[in-house]
Write a structure and sequence with these properties.
The structure is a homotetramer of 194-residue chains.
Chain A lengths: L5 H17 L6 H8 L3 H7 L3 H24 L5 H18 L1 H8 L7 H28 L8 H21 L10 H10 L5
Chain B binds a DNA duplex (21 and 21 nucleotides) through helix 2 and helix 3.
Chain lengths: 194, 194, 194, 194
DNA sequence: CATGAATGAGCATTCATTCAT
DNA sequence: AATGAATGAATGCTCATTCAT
């Protein structure tokens, strides 16, 4: 559906604002429409249903994540460095858009199982990025040769995600980007003494 | 209220089953009552309202988590070993009760922000347990002296949680307990080559 | 049912207090039982159901009204004087028991149509008293010979009742008994210039 | 809200019918909607909640009372005559709409204290009308100069209301309008012999 | 007589979606 | 394309009454 029309983006941006400011369960379609400056019915010219707004929202924003990060790590030599930049970039993007941070880390998690499964599909792209970095690191000898790729990916993602979520739940009152470096160290070196 | 009455536990167990099998939003009070073999009104002799059932559920079960794990690591000498046992025990308890796993990893996350905040309060006990182990590890020289305690805790919890959630979303079709050892290695040693 | 047992009166008095202080719709049987110092089930040893409590309450209290007033007007010579004493006594009894005033003038009116019909039956005794006075007044030549007895009775009762209700709705903050004399004058002489 | 839309009146009229025929406590919103020929949800486009329907109902109908009566007494010379016309008109309007009579005299009284207070606010307009007539009567010398205005108003209203209520409780099986003249005589001349 | 735990029917309100204009 | 009035399904909770003890 008409992804190129200006109202498509307009509605998604409205959804981010409404959800961030009122919470997932208070984000009625009529409210999103009002925020977007369109009639309720107009929403349905651009989205199949409410769920479609949320998926599209996540798709657009997560796509931006992957795109941005891919761009940044393109020229970098080592996997270790790439991992650092990824964490940095991830935290940076969230820090720059507090509404988006609230929506992706807190509110969208309240969606039902089916929606969350579909959101996971969208996450695929991001997880693949992690996989690529990890694979490269193993190949280059930076990471241990016996690394379980899936576990490593879940560790990296789970850690980044938990730290971002805690930051949002604490109302973003400390610097998230400052945490990138120590988090990276933990991921690469573990908590044990080398 | 009336925590010692048999019906208190009966209702909580019914809630776990109903939520696991039908999903959070399909877990009507009347359904829980039916599953528990009591009348709808009886629920309200033991719980203030529906939310109270869910909080109590989480409280009871997470309390069991902390209790069990504390018990198991009591006699263990090193923090590293304790961390391993914690991960093992965590995965073991989830593996033993597939309904509980679904409820805690997927369904309860759909609750509203207020309920999630109250659930987080209950989680405190578990996070404290992690803190204790990490602190002990630093003191004993097993873990790096410059470890950021909060980050380390979030790394440990985020990783365990992500791996458990992925396992549930994949319909628990592989062994979760088998992952305890490699996960522990990742947490302690990181993904980098030592 | 056991009208002579102390608990019968105990429960009725409890009902008056609970209804006056919490309102008709907040006067649950369990609350009345608690106030009376008995178990919920005990209520049903003395009353058929909740409605029966209210009817009995009204019966007892209105019986006291009729009894008291009959007693007072017994020795009085003229119907005009009797009417005055009736109004005075009516206002006096209400003034003496603010709980009772609230219950009879405001709260009990919220009962359903059926209950109100049965309450009207109880009122019969009071209305008969008015009828007697009016009839006597006509016979003695004090009142007009063409007086429509039913209308006269409704005028007297409607007036007394409205004035008492207004007084209760105004939180009883002026003297009701002071109004007896002017009300009596209005009833006997009308508002027109004689 | 939206008082000019045809559905506003449609719903109020439906409420009168449903309440009159089924009783206050059996007047579910869904029943009113059905009677009005609209969906349940439509009710809430025109009224804030159920209570708002009842208040609006009373407001509209009582407004009609005051309006009609004001209109009729405008050209009349004496306060005595105005009082007669007011009673006549009051009884006439109730006689013409038996449903409305049941609702205002019996059913709406079952509402809770808060709603009754708000209904009383609406009654103000009617009571003011009585006040004006009484004041005029005193000024013109038709009524006694020492008339207590508040008491007189309560006497007039209490009498009219009691007579109307009794008529409704007797299932409206005699002519209410026939009573206007004798009631008026009683109010003006009292029951005493002049 | 007395208890009080258990029962279960009943209802106002919200909001995603449609469709006539 | 755009509108927004209308729709109608779906559910947590209360409380009078019972009855086993």
């Amino acid at each position: 559906m008409n992804k190129n029309r200006p109202k498509y983006k307009q509605i998604i941006d409205a959804a981010v604002i409404v959800i961030a400011e009122n919470g997932y369960h208070q984000a009625q379609v009529s409210r999103i429409a009002k925020q977007a400056g369109v009639a309720d019915g107009t929403i349905y010219l651009y989205f199949k249903n409410k769920e479609d707004i949320l998926i599209s929202l996540f798709h657009e924003k997560m796509g931006y994540f992957v795109e941005k990060i891919e761009e940044e790590i393109k020229g970098i030599d080592t996997a270790t460095q790439k991992l650092l930049v990824m964490v940095e970039k991830h935290f940076e993007i969230l820090s720059e858009d507090r509404h988006l941070a609230i929506v992706t880390q807190l509110e969208l998690r309240q969606s039902n199982k089916e929606l969350r499964h579909r959101i996971n599909d969208v996450l695929r792209g991001y997880l693949n990025l992690i996989d690529e970095i990890m694979t490269e690191g193993i190949a280059s000898g930076e990471f241990r040769p016996d690394l379980n790729l899936r576990l490593a990916r879940q560790t990296v993602f789970g850690t980044i995600d938990e730290i971002a979520t805690t930051w949002v739940m604490n109302e973003q009152k400390y610097s998230l980007t400052d945490l990138a470096k120590p988090v990276h160290e933990l991921l690469v070196g573990g908590c044990g003494k080398s």
